[in-house]
Amino acid sequence: MLLSFLVLRAGGLLNNSGLAQEAGLAMATYESYKSFLINTSIIFQLQPWAKPGRLNKRFIKSSKLFFNDTNLLVYLLRRDIYDIFKNDGPAAGHIFENFIATEIMKNVTSMIDVNVSHFRTSDGKEVDFVVEKPNGDTVGIEVKLDISVKQEDFKGLKVFKEALGDKFAKGIVIYTGNEILPFGDGMWAVPVCYLWSEK
Predict the structure, then answer these.
(1) Domain count, the chain
(2) What pTM did the predictor assign?
(3) Positive or negative CA dihedral for 66, 173, 56, 113?
(4) How far is Cα 11 from Cα 143, in angstroms, rounded to an integer?
(5) Is there a smaller number of Cβ atoms within 10 Å at the N or the C end of the chain?
(6) Among the listed residues 116, 105, 68, 107, the one whose alpha carbon sits nearest the alpha carbon of residue 198
(7) CA angle (3, 9, 133) in 5-degree steps
């Protein structure tokens, strides 16, 4: 039963106490069920990014929830996928973000000590994925289900760059267009197909 509540929050911030209450579960029972789902690789969480050595109250400290299998996520929604992508932009965006999350995690599993988290400020500026190397060099990745990209789509990445400083390597907006496009000062729009490119 908990899955039916979690599936509606894929790609979103995880409010554990609220979810437990909605599902009618005691907190200890909820945490036990959630741990089972994590340990059996059905779901995973991305921890929030925190600036090393400094606690910043502007940054949201909630984890984000994802499903390891996007096909399972779609199945559990009990909705027609074509109808979702045609008529429900927000749901389609969360499904696309979940898919990108699983692809990023597949790529980083072969790397040593690479950490993946997310970044969000209290006023809603966010970066969907923060990929950090052991030396601190960091790439911010934002996901957009659209064939075009605007400067506005980089606002969260610009805030993150300011927070991170000189360890910010580049900011990327993954989108469904066809071209790699520069957006100034280490910012790039990259087609989703390049996740599988050998270039």
Answers:
(1) 1
(2) 0.91
(3) positive
(4) 11
(5) C
(6) 107
(7) 110
